[in-house]
Amino acid sequence: MRVRILLGDPDSPHVAARGDDEGTGGDVMAARVKNALTLYRPLHDIDGVEIRLHRTVLYNSIYRADDELLVNLHAYGTRAPEAPVIYLTHTESDSTATTYLNSFERVWTSAEPAVQMT
To answer: pTM of the prediction?
Structure first.
């Protein structure tokens, strides 16, 4: 089993900016990330699970299972639950899904392991 969770660093200015762009505020967005890290705490001891934090711009949210992806497209002034979600399947080496998967890999590579919150 391999599970990779990649979240915006709650101390990153990009997380604060995303919260401001959504109209919820940077502190609220940072608190959401911290809450997720707290909820993910039991996963830290499971082999094959990695959690990392990145400090890049939050363009979208990507959820992947095997070759199926859901991509939540962030839209300025729109909260994530109200933004469009597209469904993609990764069947070709040159596809829209590949673009998003490559983007995830680039961010993953530069991200830092999340420190277990106590």
So the answer is: 0.88
